[in-house]
Amino acid sequence: MKNTITMLALFISMAFYGQSHSVLGKWKTIDDETGKAKSIVEIYERSGKIYGKIIDIIDVDKKKSVCTECSGEEKNKPVMGLVIIKGLKKDGKEYNSGKILDPTTGKQYKCFLALDGNDKLKVRGYIGVSLFGRTQTWNRVK
Hints:
13% of the residues lie in helices and 47% in strands. It is mostly beta strands and 142 residues long. Strands 1-2-3-4-5-6-7-8 form an eight-stranded antiparallel beta barrel.
């Protein structure tokens, strides 16, 4: 019985340890220009690639907004529920080779993600090479 309880406790603690050292989970997006929280994005894995979907919008007045500036299948879709991070692959400690959508402007950028500690995520969107872009720091939602 003691061994079973010990193994169970070890398994649970390793699951939490693994989750905190991963980009998977819920993240509060912070606008790099204003410093204000904008939304909650859930980052998940599907078929070995990383995706991120807006699951909550902080500003109550913007909760029902649609992506009027987007093109393709995202055009005029509700921002809530929109998949904004698509197809990232793990490359060492970073995730790259995917795209990120800015629902405010409708523009898509190349993207990479990197953990900064356990509870901060550096999200960089760029055009061409990563030198031409901007970085936001998102905070893990506990």
